[in-house]
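Below is a concrete protein record.
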Amino acid sequence: MATRAMNFKMDEARVEDIKSVAAVFHMTITDVINEALDEYLPKMKRDPFYRLTANVEDASAEETEEILTAVEGLTDDDLTISQTKKFSV
């Protein structure tokens, strides 16, 4: 897998916290951040908001606003899967 360098800003207290955790576990800061992201990103991708909007890259601003308004108004009952159908092609 190819790697790529990134530059991002983080508050100094958080940087020091990451450094201290990394030192205790003999890890690099990159390893700590990657492990945290490995846990966090799958959780975020299961979120209904992400699942309903992730494939809508070509939507206009108006369409995006409409989708976001509809998603924000959904209740837990609305998000319950009531049936599943499989189609083979």
